[in-house]
Structures are given as C-alpha cells and as structure tokens.
Design goal:
By secondary structure, the chain is of the alpha+beta class. The chain has 14 helices and 21 strands. Helix 1 links the parallel strand 1 and strand 2.
Length: about 425
C-alpha cells in the first residue's frame, strides 16, 4: 500500500513506523521544519522543550517506539519512583515493589497526613479497585473524590488530575482519571515510576525518527486538501492517516466527512504555560517538586534541569489548566514571586523564557464525545484527541498512531487498493 501520513507529532511518527514496518510505502507530510509536534524542542542553548513533559512507566508503547528507533529509554529518561515532594515536605513517595503494595505502604508511611486521611484514601482506593476503576461517565474528579479528606485532595488528587488531564478537578472526567490511576498504580512493577527527560525532547523521539524515516519525510509541507479516492493535495495514495491536530483534521475533512469533522471541531482546549526561570548556582532537593497553586501561585510543578542533564540553574515551572492565567496575564511574574516565596535560591531568579500553548490538550471533561479513529476504510485519524481511554498524552498519541496504522493496514489487506473513500 502507498500510504500518506499527515502530521509528524508522536502519533504521526508512531503511525509511520508501524506502516513502514508492515511493509507499506509511506510518505509523511509535516508542516513544521521538524518532527515532534507539541513534544518538540525549541531553539536555545541548550534547547528548551516546548513545555516540560513527564512520562511514566506505564507508557509501554512510547517506550517500545523509542527502542524501535534505536533510542535507549534509560539513556534519555531519568527513572524515579513516584514521589510528590513539596518544598520542605517529603510528601507521598512509593517504595519499590509491586505497585499495589507500594501504594499501600507509601500511603501508610506518609506522616504529613493524619491517620484518618491515610485510611480514608486506602478505603476509597480499595473501592475503586473493587469496581474495576470504572464509574459513572458523567462524574467529575471533584465529585468522585468529594468524600476524601481535604489533605488528600489538595496534595494528591488535584495535582495528579491537573498534571495528567490538564483539566481542573471540578471539570475533569472521573472515568479518564480512574483509568490513568489504574494504569499507573496497578499495571505491573515500575508502571507508576516517573520518567523525566534528561535530553531535549527532540532527542527522545523526533530526531531519531527523522533519521529513521529519511527520504520518506516531507518537512515544511502543510497539506492543504484531502479528497475522496486517497488524494493528498492531488497526489494519489491507497490510504491516509490524518495525524495532524484536531483543528487541522477538522478543516481537512470538512467536505469528505462532515460528521466526523464536526466532532473534531467541537472539542474544547486547555492551555499550559511553561515558565523557565534562571538562577545560577541554585538547585532543588529533588529533580521535581510539587507546588500548591492558588490565586497568586500559578505553578503546580517545578523541574530542576541541572539534575536532569540540562542547563544547571535552569528551572521549568509548569502551569497546567492555565486558562485563567492566559485570560488574566502576568503569569510569569506571578511564577517568579511564587518561586521566591517557596524555594531557596542561591542567586535571585530571573525569567528566562515563557512558552504558552493555548491548545496544549483537549479539555478532558465528563461524558466527552471524542471523534473515532476510522473516518472511512482508507482514511484514519490518529492523535491524542481520538476516542480512547487516555487523556491527551504522549502515550495516547502513540497508541492512536499504532491503532490507525493497524486499521488502515487491515483495510488494505481486505479491500482492493485505491478503492474510493466512502464517507460516513
Ligand atoms: C506544554 C505541554 C506539556 C505537555 N506535557 C505532557 C506530559 O508531561 N506528558 C504527556 O504525556 N503529554 C504531555 N503533553 C501532551 C503531549 O505533548 C501531546 O499529547 C502529544 O504531543 C500529541 O501528539 P500528536 O501527535 O497527537 O499531536 P501533535 O504533537 O500536535 O502533532 C500534530 C502535527 O501535525 C502537524 N500538522 C498540523 N496540520 C498539518 C497539515 N495540514 N499538514 C502537515 N502537518 C500538519 C503539526 O505541525 C504537528 O507536528 C503536553 C503538551 C503540551 C503542549
């Protein structure tokens, strides 16, 4: 099959590699001058990432894709047992071992919480486990966790929710949150581990993918139209994977699949702001600290790049669910003040760079109808927003890319190649 992939983020890379490995003749169109999409590095010395990214041990398919491209995850990612330390507080930390036992031991050992809070969390988590981590799809995370002690909501549920779903707990889907917890905490040893990039993001996947794909890549090429019969800007293909953003996918399918296009267009978005501060000679007690956000404190997490193989004295502050700060302005200055209040600095920090992604992820709200992967037998979509159990994550994108490639490949084996597209 001659297949086109439109978009070279992690979903497009995953689709391209899977199709090429299945023996298909592929062409990947990417409008930017480089691969990587939202998970790319931007110019700087050393480069900045377009937002701090965290992976976890449960990102099985992302790790396999790295290995396929010749990347050793141990070289490019720092693996740490899950811990949520706050400045001056050890916070929750999971000891090594089977995740279920580690979670129980970690919660019981968390002296920062009174006993009723620890037992309350274990009882509630036991209930989630018994119900198979499923709940009413209309529930928000805040509703799901309403009965939990305040300290557990403040120190664990709210930061995990905004980190994983990029949607504040009152608006976030409880069902998706439970699925993330299930995969992180209960799907095998090491699944909850934090994997923090210790190389620029482009070295983690996009750079090696560029070398691997070689002449099959068309960089700097924004696809303008797709048409029935597998036409991409007039060039004929047997199948297409749309791995561009949902906004672009909606535009490209407006005529060929109006129903699907409307579903993609209907998604809402949440911003993320990353504020890089510089403070030569400063270091944190751990590579990552959680922070308590509030009306004058935008950031929920901070990362010390000096401990992550990057520039010493460079710190990345992450403001997830950042819509109020985009509207209000002044986020970087508020982060600077938050940092000065909460962290011990060797030299006064200064703002180094501010990156605002207004459409960082789709808003992961209860009962959300996400567009399906199959648009037509020879037209599939891939991306972190496609219907599935995960929020907008690298792993969600990679799994969607693989699923689209498999779907297209099956169609190609079952139907005569070049058959006209039937739109739903
Ligand atoms: C600041 C930030 C922090 C994040 N943190 C995390 C994190 O810690 N952990 C995590 O798992 N996830 C995180 N994410 C989410 C993660 O980055 C995304 O889920 C993932 O990168 C999405 O990949 P994708 O391939 O679906 O889409 P994208 O990366 O958006 O890729 C789409 C690609 O299509 C291209 N394109 C668009 N239109 C066209 C066209 N017409 N023709 C050709 N090419 C086109 C674009 O240029 C782009 O390269 C974060 C995202 C942001 C923005």
């Amino acid at each position: 099959m001659k297949a086109a992939i439109v978009g070279g983020g992690w979903a497009g890379i995953a689709a391209a590699v899977a199709l090429a490995d299945a023996g298909h003749d592929i062409t990947l169109f990417e409008m930017a001058p480089q691969l990587g999409g939202r998970a790319r590095s931007v110019v700087g010395e050393p480069p900045y990432d377009n937002g701090q990214h965290i992976l976890i041990g449960a990102y099985r398919d992302s790790l396999a894709l790295m290995r396929r491209l010749g990347v050793d995850p141990q070289q490019v990612l720092k693996r740490l047992p899950l811990a949520l330390p706050y400045p001056g507080e050890p916070g929750l930390r999971l000891p090594p071992g089977s995740p279920l036992v580690a979670f129980t031991r970690g919660v019981l050992a968390h002296r920062g919480w009174p006993w009723p809070a620890r037992l309350g969390l274990l009882t509630t988590a036991g209930g989630w486990l018994t119900r198979g981590f499923r709940c009413d799809p209309r529930l928000s995370v805040a509703e799901l966790c309403a009965g939990l002690p305040t300290a557990v909501k403040r120190d664990l549920v709210e930061p995990l929710c905004v980190a994983a779903l990029n949607t504040p707990a009152p608006q976030a889907s409880a069902q998706v949150f439970l699925r993330v917890l299930k995969d992180a905490l209960f799907s095998g040893a090491g699944s909850a581990d934090l994997l923090l990039p210790r190389r620029p993001l482009s070295d983690v996947l996009a750079g090696p993918a560029t070398a691997w794909l070689g002449p099959r890549l068309r960089l700097g090429r924004r696809v303008q139209t797709i048409e029935r019969g597998g036409l991409v800007d007039g060039e004929s293909f047997d199948g297409i994977v749309l791995a561009c953003t949902s906004v672009e996918a909606a535009r490209l399918t407006a005529d060929v699949a109006p129903g699907w296009s409307a579903a993609a267009r209907a998604l809402g978005y949440e911003p993320i702001i990353t504020v890089y501060l510089s403070s030569p000679g400063s270091a944190m007690p751990a590579p990552m600290l959680a922070l308590r956000d509030g009306p004058d404190a935008p950031a929920q997490f901070v990362f010390d790049h000096g401990q992550l193989g990057g520039a010493p004295g460079r710190f990345a502050f992450v403001v997830s669910g950042a819509a109020p700060w985009v509207e209000r302005g002044g986020c970087a200055e508020a982060v600077l003040a938050q940092a000065q209040r909460e962290l011990a600095w060797a030299t006064p920090p200064v703002i180094d760079k501010v990156l605002t992604e207004k459409r960082a992820t789709f808003a992961c709200t209860p009962g959300l109808a996400r567009p399906p992967a199959q648009i037509a037998p020879d037209l599939w979509a891939a991306g972190d927003y496609i219907d599935g159990p995960y929020p907008a994550t690298l792993e969600g994108a990679v799994r969607a890319g693989i699923a689209a490639a498999q779907g297209l490949g099956k169609g190609a084996n079952g139907a005569a190649s070049g058959s006209p597209t039937k739109t739903p």
